């Protein structure tokens, strides 16, 4: 396709990882394996946290919505990328690209917010165990989850509106496997970046607030845990906090690295690999991380595999 046709076509051309057919097939197979693993893991967590009476505390309620977010998050980019690689066609329509940007940014920011909420839940459970039921009562948990989804949608609208308000006058080639916002903005020759800068500044401030809240929560958590006299008590507290801390560290570190690294017109293979670490890996690994040291989760999973009966829920949420 000549450059003029690429410039004037209505959609965009996703370059993906390679022009070599064999590598495209390999990429599609690897992505398919990771996608199926992510779907299976997150669906299992959603199922057992819904059906098992023992998994009705706020921690598991938020974990269920985190799995729902992960399920949706990986479905925004990976299936399209698999299809493009198998079909050897990187074309994505303008409308598909808008939807991809909206859902990707909405779900990414919703995940940031729910990870912040989950850190506050752990802070309340460990630092204020006697008041935990009052602090995290069912109505507050429901409102927190509603706020997560609403704020994620608002951020998605802001990002999408700002990105597609600029004029694309360069060749509509995106050096990525999905409609990446920084790559899209590089296709513009417009000097009107006021909306883009405003949205980026606002979202950066929100991200900083969320990150600071998580850090402060864990400072209080660790100072409290280290004062617990019994080894068993410390081990139980750490077993509920360390998976969340690992997920938060992984998600934020890769996201921050992607945000701070300089953008090039032709990203390297290393740049694309880094993008996998914040788009594909978290939804795939989160179910495994949260299940490794959690005996209640493993027992519920065994019941699911063996066809055992779950205790019916009597209340929306129960507590420790």
Automatic annotation (TrEMBL):
Domain G-protein coupled receptors family 1 profile: 41-290
Annotated Pfam families: 7tm_4
CDD domains: 7tmA_OR14-like
Keywords: Cell membrane, G-protein coupled receptor, Membrane, Olfaction, Receptor, Sensory transduction, Transducer, Transmembrane, Transmembrane helix
Membrane topology note: Multi-pass membrane protein
Classification via InterPro entries: GPCR_Rhodpsn, GPCR_Rhodpsn_7TM, Olfact_rcpt, Olfactory_GPCR
Protein's cellular compartments: Cell membrane
GO cellular component: plasma membrane
One MF term in the entry's GO annotations: olfactory receptor activity
Domain of life: Eukaryota
Residue spans crossing the bilayer: 25-48, 60-78, 98-123, 144-168, 202-226, 238-260, 272-292
Family assignment from sequence similarity: Belongs to the G-protein coupled receptor 1 family.
PANTHER family: OLFACTORY RECEPTOR (PTHR26452)
Biological role stated in the UniProt entry: Odorant receptor.
Protein name listed in UniProt: Olfactory receptor
The species this protein was found in: Orycteropus afer afer
Gene: LOC103206048
């Amino acid at each position: 396709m000549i450059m003029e046709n690429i410039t004037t076509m209505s959609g965009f051309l996703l370059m993906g990882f390679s022009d070599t057919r064999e590598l495209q097939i390999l990429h599609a197979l690897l992505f398919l394996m990771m996608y199926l693993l992510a779907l299976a893991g997150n669906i299992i967590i959603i199922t057992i946290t819904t059906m098992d009476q023992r998994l009705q505390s706020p921690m598991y309620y938020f974990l269920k919505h985190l799995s729902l977010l992960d399920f949706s998050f990986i479905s925004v980019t990976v299936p399209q990328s698999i299809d493009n690689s198998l079909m050897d066609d990187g074309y994505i329509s303008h409308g598909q690209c808008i939807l991809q940007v909206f859902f990707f940014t909405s779900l990414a920011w919703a995940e940031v917010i729910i990870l912040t909420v989950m850190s506050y839940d752990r802070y309340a459970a460990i630092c204020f165990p006697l008041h935990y039921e009052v602090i995290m009562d069912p109505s507050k948990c429901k409102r927190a989850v509603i706020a997560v989804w609403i704020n994620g949608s608002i951020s998605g609208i802001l990002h999408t509106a700002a990105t597609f308000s600029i004029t694309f006058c360069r060749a509509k080639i995106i050096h990525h496997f999905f409609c990446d916002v920084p790559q899209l903005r590089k296709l513009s020759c417009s000097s009107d970046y006021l909306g883009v800068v405003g949205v980026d500044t606002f979202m950066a401030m929100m991200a900083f607030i969320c990150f600071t809240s998580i850090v402060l929560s864990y400072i209080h958590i660790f100072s409290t845990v280290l004062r617990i006299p019994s080894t068993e008590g410390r081990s139980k507290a750490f077993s509920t906090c360390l998976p969340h801390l690992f997920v938060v560290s992984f998600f934020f570190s890769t996201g921050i690295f992607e945000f701070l690294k300089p953008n090039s017109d032709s990203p390297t293979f290393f740049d694309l690999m880094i993008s996998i670490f914040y788009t594909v890996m978290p939804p795939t690994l989160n179910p495994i991380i949260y299940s490794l040291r959690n005996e209640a989760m493993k027992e519920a999973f065994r019941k699911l595999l063996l066809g055992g009966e779950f205790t019916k829920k009597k209340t929306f949420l129960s507590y420790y």
